[in-house]
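C-alpha cells please, single chain.
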Amino acid sequence: MRVVRNANFEDCAAIAALHVRAWQAVYRGHMPDEFLDRLDIGERTKMWRKLNVASNRVLLVMDDGDGTISGFCDLILSRDGDAKPTTGEISAIYVSPKKWGQGIGQELLSVAAGRAREKGFSEVTLWVLHANQRARKFYEKFGFVSTAVRKKMIDGMTSLSARCGTENHCKRSSNRLKPYLRARSLSSRAPSAQPSR
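Here you go.
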C-alpha cells in the first residue's frame, strides 16, 4: 500500500533518479536536449543528500510499499525576495512519468499543504513552467489561478514560468489550497542543473 512519508537519507538516490527522469520527460522540447541528456543522477543524489539534512525543509516521498519511490515533494521557506516570512514554497514536486495520472501528485501536494500549516505558513508558493500545460491544469484543479508577474529565472528557459500562492490556506481545516499563479518570463541563458522548476 502506498503512503506519503518523510524522506530519509537512503531515499536520496531514488529521489535523484526520479528527478532526472521527470525533468527529461517534462522539459523535453522546452529546454535544450543536450542539457537534459547531461543531467547526472550522481550529482542530483549528492544535492538531495545535502538538502535532506536541512532542518528547515519538509521532503516528502510517495512510498509504493515495496521500496519504490514514485514521487516526491519538497517544502521550504520561500526563496522569493518579495515573500513574507510566513510564506512557504514547494521547491519541487515530481512524479515518476510511468505513474502520471494516478493521484500521486495530488496526495503529495495535499500532505505538503498540511505540513505547511503545521510549520505556521500562512501562504505557500510554487513555480511551474508556463508551457507545461499538464502541470498547470493540475495546479488549477487544486485551486491555483494565474496572475501576470514576470521574473527572470536561473534555469534559462525562454518561456514563462508561474508562481502559485495559497493565501490564508493554512488557517483553514482543509488541505485544499486557495492559490494564485504569477506568470514570469525566464531568461535565455544556458540552463544550470538547479533543483526543481
